[in-house]
Design brief:
With 264 residues, this protein is α+β, with helices and mostly antiparallel strands. It has one domain: S-adenosylmethionine decarboxylase, CATH 3.60.90. Helices cover 23% and strands 31% of the residues. It is built from five helices and ten strands; from the N terminus they run E-H-H-E-E-E-E-H-E-E-E-H-E-E-H. The protein has an eight-stranded antiparallel sheet. Strand 7 and strand 8 form a beta hairpin. The longest helix is centred in the C-terminal third of the chain and has 20 residues. The chain is globular, with a radius of gyration of 21 Å.
Amino acid sequence: MMEIKQIEKLKLYGFNNLTKTLSFNMYDICYAITPQHRKEYIEYIDEEYDADRLTGILEEVAQMIGANILNIAKQDYEPQGASVTMLISEGHNPLEHVGLTPDAVVGHLDKSHITVHTYPESHPYKGISTFRADIDVSTCGEISPLKALNFLINSFCSDIVIADYRVRGFTRDVKGRKFFIDHKINSIQNFISREKRELYHMIDVNMYQENIFHTKMILKEFDLDNYLFGTLQRDLTSGDRKKIKQRLKKEMAEIYSGRNIPRV
């Protein structure tokens, strides 16, 4: 885990109310030749990443960043997909000493939360199926979502990761001076393990003056067998292998670039 370098320890006036938000879109891409295979892929993903599994992942995240879980809401959807929302606070419940329950602090802590939503779907006729997980880790105070970065990437084994990190608001020191960030960062990549960086091509689009950081990741290696669901590469003709590979790479390039690529 990468160490988050802190600016010299601040003596604050009151609570550190900087809001740090780490947001992901994570994509798994596959090719399912028949309608039955596409149906089975959706069912597999729906079972693999149901609300209970997602809750376990978010509980691990809360433990990693040192957050106290106040409330969990989870839901599996029909026909597919799931959501989990977890309300968290820094350390212990700050209002326990006055006898308030966690339900009573939902409004007070509504900027500290972890959420995940899943979106399994398939192309209507070209065999492409995708699984997207949207994850947000938003914290107030000294706890940082960056501590869970590598764990989250590992948890979903994604082909493509689109990540955003932003620090909002300000906190004050005892002399009233504003601080708009309390740690050093020039790229999300700084907090990704070397082993994981070696697996992905990555590009940054950052706005340093606004404390906005954006990183896109796509796997370097492409093994067709890793993208086929319900069949094997050896069972396909060379023409089919070429066609499927082109469709998969086009799909991945469009997701990575955020735009449709015209047919040549």
